[in-house]
Amino acid sequence: MGLWTRKTIQELQESSEEGGQKLSRHLGAVDLIFLGIGCIVGAGLFSITGIAAAENAGPAIVISFIIASIGCAFAGLCYSELAAMIPIAGSAYTFAYATMGELMAWSIGWTLILEYAIGAAAVSISWSAYLVSLLQDFNLQLPTSITASPWQPVKLVNGIQEYGIINLPALLIVVLISIILIIGIKQSAIANAVMVVTKVSVTLAFIGIGYFYIDSANYHPFLPSNTGHFGEFGWSGVFRAAGIVFFAYIGFDAVSTAAQETKNPQRNMPIGILGSLVICTFLYVLFAYVMTGLVNYKDLNVAAPAALAIEHTPFHWLQWLVKIAILTGLTSVILVLLLGQSRIFYSMAKDGLLPAFFCEVHPKLHTPWRSNLILMVFVGSFGALAPLELVGSMTSIGTLLAFVMVCAGVLVLRYLEPNLIRPFKTPFVPWVPLMGICVCLFMMFFLGWENWMRLFLWLVIGLLIYFYYGRFHR
Fold it and tell me: Beta-strand (E) ranges in 306-448?
């Protein structure tokens, strides 16, 4: 075997089924849709919408959401084709092994840690901040020493900055979610479904109640004139806002990591990936339409634009419900990200690129429990001690690189293996995969050189591990 050796789909299937205990298939199409929504809908819906409307698009932010969803749909269609063809845990890592060879598979598997593990740490820090805010609404104040990183300054009400010792809420939520994941995939899916129903219900309540208090004057002009600077309103502002809200859709790819625990994955995987994207697009567009109808777009550049919009209705109690929805939303995001990362480690360990304990499945619970425990320690430590700016900025670029690789994988496999059975086929090949690649590279370009440098250093570390361990144990 060489660095560019590909595994056939049959070899990948056989490798995944070797050994004693196996992952059990419990998930149906609805479970997968809920997993997708669980990871997509987070705090971004309630915050990023207002900022992008105020600074870039005005009420035309609804068009920005539609444009962003089309960009995600390119990658979603490619994920659907490969997930239906290769229904094995591992997502983009497994797809890369079948299309571009071992070295590229390792590189993308290593990069996915940025999206899943580091992303979960970033979300746990946000979860902690929203919990502190919600408790303050009920006059309960947690000390900074146990709610912030030692490298993350917190500005108090009196203007004084304090540093914490440990972000204990962030650590505890990671521990709790890890325990749920170890108990079983069925129980994890049920917990995720409850959280998804909660946050979607609050979102629908905001839309349903807010609709009757819309001031139509706030929609004029629907597309504000450009200020003379690119990206500040006009059509350039709509497209820049689309680039900003694009990241509110990230998460649908985590559905593909559960392929090996899905009943009839050839049918259910595309439904889960594309279904969650469609539902979230409807939610985002309706939410943005109501928010910009309740409040003039110029006033939405605040930390909590949803709370400001609720003040334009007589139902102010919706404000703390929104915070509860954000908390449950973030909790479900952590759950799906940790689920996805443990399954990627599982596949990489099955191939010998990582130590075998990452793929050890519990004999009764049928989950990769040791992988979950290791992630609990790793992610919990990052959430408890690292500043949000560091972990948050590392997440997006890794995700987009994975999208690029998956879109490219569809093109490669169509060329190398044109006669393979494809239960779901990406339409308009090669244009859809090429558009997916272009959109994701475009987004990566605007992430700044600092993020590119972090990605480069991260890949260098990964390649050192591969050349000194992985290639000798594969």
Answer: none
Radius of gyration of the chain (CA): 22
Are 185 and 261 in contact, with CB atoms under 8 Å apart? yes
CA 10 – CA 146 distance, rounded (Å): 50
Residue ranges covered by each domain of the chain:
19-473
Higher-confidence residue: 26 or 437?
437
Distances, alpha carbon 355 to alpha carbons 341, 449, 462, 470, in Å = 15, 33, 14, 9
CA distances from 142 to 137, 154, 167, 361, 413 (A): 12, 13, 11, 39, 54
CA–CA separation, 76 vs 403, rounded Å? 9
- Asked if residue 182 lies in contact with residue 369, where contact means CB atoms within 8 angstroms, the answer is yes
3-state secondary structure of 185: helix
Cβ neighbours of residue 173 closer than 8 Å, sequence gap 6 or more: 124, 127, 128, 331, 334, 383
Encode pLDDT of 241-266 as tens digits.
Answer: 887 787 778 778 888 888 888 888 88
**Which residue in this structure is represented by tokens 């505890």?**
172
Chain position carrying tokens 């910009």: 292
Other beta carbons less than 10 A from residue 225's beta carbon: 11
Question: What mean pLDDT is predicted for residues 67-72?
Answer: 87
The encoded tokens of residue 433 equal: 């995969």
Instruction: Please tell me the number of Cα atoms within 13 Å of 422 on its side-chain side.
Output: 17
Helix, coil or strand: residue 358: helix
Six-digit token string for 460: 């260098």
* Amino acid letter, residue 258: A
User: How far is the C-alpha of 346 from the C-alpha of 352, rounded, in Å?
Assistant: 10
Q: How many angstroms from the chain centroid is the CA of residue 391?
A: 14
> Residue 221: which residues within 8 A CB-CB, separation 6 or more?
58, 59
The answer, yes or no, to whether residue 396 has pLDDT greater than 80, is no
Distance CA 225, CA 235 (A): 9
CATH fold, domain 19-473, is Amino acid/polyamine transporter I (1.20.1740)
Distance (Å, whole) CA 246 – CA 400: 11
Task: Write down the mean pLDDT value for the chain.
Answer: 86
Q: Quote the CA–CA distance of 82 and 266 in Å, as a whole number.
A: 10
Predicted model pTM: 0.86
What phi-psi label fits residue 87: left (phi over 0), alpha (psi between -120 and 50 degrees) or beta?
Answer: beta
Q: What is the mean pLDDT of residues 212-233?
A: 89
